[in-house]
Amino acid sequence: MHESLWQQCIEQLQNELPSHQFNTWLRPLILSESGVFTLLAPNRFIANWVRDKYVQRIQTILEELGYNDAIEIEIANGQGKKPVVASSRQAGAKKPIQMDLKPSASAPVSTSSASPVVIEDRKQPKEIEVQTTGAKRGKGKVQSYLNPSFTFKSFVEGKSNQLALAASQQIAENVGGAYNPLFIYGGVGLGKTHLMQAIGNHIIDQNPAAKVVYLHSERFVADMVKALQLNAMPEFKKFYRSLDALLIDDIQFFAKKDRSQEEFFHTFNALLEGNQQVILTCDRFPKEIEGLEDRLKSRFGWGLTVAVEPPDLETRVAILMKKAEEQKVKLPGEAAFFIAQRIRSNVRELEGALKRVSANARFTGSAINTAFVKEALKDLLALQDKQVSIENIQRTVAEYYKIKISDLHSKRRSRSIARPRQVAMALSKELTQHSLPEIGEAFGGRDHTTVLHACRKVKELRETIQDIREDYSNLHRTLTT
Ligand SMILES: Nc1ncnc2c1ncn2[C@@H]1O[C@H](COP(=O)(O)OP(=O)(O)OP(=O)(O)O)[C@@H](O)[C@H]1O
């Protein structure tokens, strides 16, 4: 009975909501088979979001269909069970951002452009210059370390970054709220820094006096070492603990730096306790960072962990068109499609390719079309074609799943072999120019329909199963960077 009610309800929601909202938040919900009307969400973020934004509407629709009991939203693996009723809470209230700290006029002026805390090497008094704050770009003495072009507006949404974008937007609106810290992870050049800084830029746009600091983890370490040498740890601590939002990029560099981890752990706790927002990026999932203390790994997972994955073809085209428009480059759709088809590894490389094409076009005074792009990117494409071969993919996949390359060619059908084989086929389709029959041939002489089936299956599994999504993205990263 619940099944048919939910079916009607979900159809109604699909009619009511924009498709991206429906696909992101409601499509992933699964009706549990337990006695109570329970919807299972794939992760805590979706569960919380649905509780905050959609549960009332769901309940109302169900009531119209004659169902009057409360419903529950749970996380599919059973974590964080939290019953909800129709009158569930509203979205988190906005926390006012403190406006107390201004850079000291007497503080030493730093020429360093990267470090927000400048500890001068002099005996008395030890001063820390706070160069931090947002500060409207270009205004006043205060320097911003945020790239003003990294905004939500300039960020192209796609399936590969949808959750990360939604989470970032949510946090930008509710600084220090329910999702703290935000941990964004994913491969090189996929937009982690862009998203993190978009949050920072948004906070500052809302409140130009907000204290937002963005820095690379290596900078944090270097500043701390300097503070230690100069006996200036109290100032160091005070500074970091006074922020509204601390944005630390690439925290994998904390690995094996025990003293920095210790200090960061305390800073981190102090910020979380004060409801100050912490945003971290990393090239991998927290648990996979070797040389990072377990307590930090576990703490990173307290808030919200979201992945950015390599963008699919449509998103790559959209990103190219957007970048071309921003740079006032006339890029025909067909040429964008060609670039996007051939440059698949990450967005930074897409941007690099576009820059190269537009520089060539300017230099030669030519209009950009596909033939021109082919010529301008000749070397790059030749290099890339050489790098990703089916053999390479098979070797990498076999190593990753700890199976033999010959298993990928064999007829064995056990899942421990068949799944990696399907993943390897899908990667071959995505990363090489080989046709389906050629790929089938390279996998023990299989039919092209088997390859097509594998590609569809892997696509579906990536959408529904986190492990497969991560495996695929790890392999993609290994093969393309
Ligand atoms: N979805 C997107 N829309 C628009 N631009 C994007 C998108 N994703 C990435 N970019 C652009 O790609 C470039 C690289 O992104 P970014 O520096 O954020 O990557 P990253 O994931 O932080 O990489 P790294 O791990 O190397 O630090 C930036 O110029 C960014 O603006």
UniProtKB/TrEMBL annotation:
CDD domains: AAA (cd00009), Bac_DnaA_C (cd06571). The keyword Cytoplasm applies. Pfam families: Bac_DnaA, Bac_DnaA_C, DnaA_N. Residues 1-105 are annotated as: Domain I, interacts with DnaA modulators. Residues 362-481 are annotated as: Domain IV, binds dsDNA. It comes from the Bacteria. Residues 145-361 are annotated as: Domain III, AAA+ region. Plays an essential role in the initiation and regulation of chromosomal replication. ATP-DnaA binds to the origin of replication (oriC) to initiate formation of the DNA replication initiation complex once per cell cycle. Binds the DnaA box (a 9 base pair repeat at the origin) and separates the double-stranded (ds)DNA. Forms a right-handed helical filament on oriC DNA; dsDNA binds to the exterior of the filament while single-stranded (ss)DNA is stabiized in the filament's interior. HAMAP family: DnaA_bact (MF_00377). Domain I is involved in oligomerization and binding regulators, domain II is flexibile and of varying length in different bacteria, domain III forms the AAA+ region, while domain IV binds dsDNA. Oligomerizes as a right-handed, spiral filament on DNA at oriC. This is Chromosomal replication initiator protein DnaA. It comes from Reinekea marina.
